[in-house]
């Protein structure tokens, strides 16, 4: 059965009932002219362009990638693939891939050989270490590399260089997920499982546009909605997403007010005594303080702050308060605001006081946005120590030092690991003299881009960029290292519900491009990092050896991988950690028998003050939680830091669209995906458009105190007073000289966003900028280049032709349920 998976991103329905297993449906797409019989080999992999971890097989013909197909037995996707999975692999074959290293000479990047490039990096590293010490060197990585690569990076950065400056762009998308889990449960680790979607009676999505960010899991929800005993949905989102259109209750609050809304839901839950008192007594601390904090947070109080009807808040409270199986998911609508951690923690609180944890259909998914964001957290390639060890706990540091065979003093733990926003501030101020950026594009993805471009362009900052393409960031670098990517190297990815998949090398990388692991190991060899006995700090060379080394580091920790191996993952497919020899099938849900990692001797973190971000003292934590229970941490609502005024009367929110990933370095090079959403746009509601005399397709200017962009207007059913701009669009595919630095109008959403972050998770704010909207030019028959299949659908469907997929339908193969294609 052929299907246009651009116009219909979620494919056909395979209905099933609650508590039944999700039936399989195998999706596939082969390059034009390639018949299934021509495929010479199929190599296993998992999705790289979202956090779902959908398993797939890569088709190989004559040494090149030729397509993909889903895997029917995969526990995550049951054979389904989303549009980015089906088409995104084609970016690997782009003609503008980096194939040789580049170095800056006389102000220009020129090609060189690997030995010259790497020795230049190593020489600058040695110079900085000799002159200024390890604090002068920082590493900023991605959520798209493999576990093995993050672990190598963590070892060389923390034990080799000895720097505290190691973080990833996961700071922009999943830092709050990690912090909220640590605040509530003492440790990171996703409590729930995607399988809970099969069993939940109510699914509550808080700031999570699942339909566009995890398309396969939204397909799972749609299949349940089409079957018997469908779940009821609560959607909290200011935009008219597909989730909102299917919701039993949709709340569209004013952005930045999630804590007020959640406090009202907690108020109603406690007021009506919808509390599992036995669970609360046995497994939590802090209930009395929480109840006192939310006692005055009535629906009427929250309605005034959130600008939603009190009756709707009451309906939402009844929905989540009376169900027998509540699954909640949380993502960027919560995470990228000024009270991000406080709001995410209140979702955890709701589950804890209702006892909705550790059983089928009752769980929390503090979601990720990237395919290996979970791996950065486990391996210590972000603001944590490897294996979820506590930097404030000397025994944890000593244990890690034993694994690496170094002295504990070698591992920096005098202060919290430096978060990305602080690292870039240090680079701006000059204390960081070298910044190594791997697999990410901060010149488009970080807030306040004029500032980011200026600091990256400083002559005193030596910048190394490791990537597939000459991105906006790479253009500012001193050394550019061409990297191999998915399908061109071997490694593991761990998805948002702790499922580990093995991705096999299918083809050779182009030219001289190298796997990220090889690049990091080359650097470690040139630096001659040694352990305390004089042996090599890193003694492994191949991905499988790195995986085995990681297993030793994870042993006995919450994210225990010791029961996994490459062979087991090849045979069994995705397996959820913790997985040990005693539990070789993995662990579907955490906390099935109480809270396991919150004891003061075991916890990953003692927590933080949610309003200031100040670290909780170990003695204070031990006094509060001597028995290691979950912590019910209350928080008062605080107004957003930047509010609309006469000059900037709107709030501006940025976010994703279904067809693109991050800064479009891959998806923008794929015809099917690029044609579905070829250019940036701005969304405003019909009432605001009429008031300003604006219409569909008008060229408008969005300005904030930091900068501005120009784009065409899409009139939608977004909440009044709010503008939305997708953040994917930078300048790599525009004419030279276009953009703010060339004197032209901005295109990137982050020209406008603010340098500010949540106090606890340090995640930057992308949802609450104050903005102005003005006319630049009339539409003149044009319309916004925004998809009509998604949250950007026009409020008047007849005013805009279907834009998703452009003029061409891209057919994929959808098999019959349970079959193959």
From TrEMBL:
Molybdopterin oxidoreductase domain location: 97-525
Keywords: Iron, Iron-sulfur, Metal-binding, Nitrate assimilation
InterPro entries associated with the record: Asp_de-COase-like_dom_sf (IPR009010), CT_Nitrate-R-NapA-like (IPR041957), MoPterin_dinucl-bd_dom (IPR006657), Mopterin_OxRdtase (IPR006656), Mopterin_OxRdtase_prok_CS (IPR006655), Prok_molybdopt-oxidoreductase (IPR050123)
Biased composition (Low complexity): 784-813
Domain Molybdopterin dinucleotide-binding: from-to ranges: 650-769
Superkingdom: Bacteria
Location of the region described as Disordered in the Swiss-Prot/TrEMBL record: 736-759, 784-821
SUPFAM superfamilies in UniProt: ADC-like (SSF50692), Formate dehydrogenase/DMSO reductase, domains 1-3 (SSF53706)
Cofactor: [4Fe-4S] cluster; Mo-bis(molybdopterin guanine dinucleotide)
Protein family membership: Belongs to the prokaryotic molybdopterin-containing oxidoreductase family. NasA/NapA/NarB subfamily.
Name the record gives this protein: Nitrate reductase
Species of origin: Streptomyces doebereineriae
